[in-house]
């Protein structure tokens, strides 16, 4: 299955749970894409000990069938730079993920 997850919040617990689900899907053999939209592009600034997002993202990015894309416009508004854990993409990328995915989840 091709699963796309759209994160639109920087709430640590919500993103932690979404990334845990993404990693579980990868372990079950699915292809998983995560698109960061709006304030979610700041997900890495709210890491909490109880909800270790960095650990989940590091695990996610190690998989060959995983892709993380961040809205470039949302990053520009927040003066953020492109990085491996938050690579810039665009609304075309989001559209493509939606159009080609079997399932799309939003958090």
TrEMBL record:
Pfam families: DsrE. InterPro entries: DsrEFH-like, Sulphur_relay_DsrE/F-like. This is Uncharacterized protein. SUPFAM superfamilies: DsrEFH-like. The lineage of its organism: Bacteria, Candidatus Roizmaniibacteriota.
């Amino acid at each position: 299955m091709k699963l796309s997850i759209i994160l639109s919040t920087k709430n640590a617990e919500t993103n932690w749970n979404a990334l845990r689900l993404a990693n579980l899907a990868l372990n079950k053999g699915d292809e998983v894409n995560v698109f960061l939209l709006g304030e979610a592009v700041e997900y890495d600034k709210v890491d909490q000990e109880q909800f270790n997002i960095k650990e989940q993202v590091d695990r996610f990015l190690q998989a060959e069938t995983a892709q993380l894309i961040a809205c470039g416009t949302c990053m520009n508004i927040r003066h953020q730079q492109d990085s491996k854990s938050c690579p810039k993409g665009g609304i075309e990328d989001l559209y493509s993920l939606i159009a080609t995915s079997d399932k799309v989840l939003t958090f």
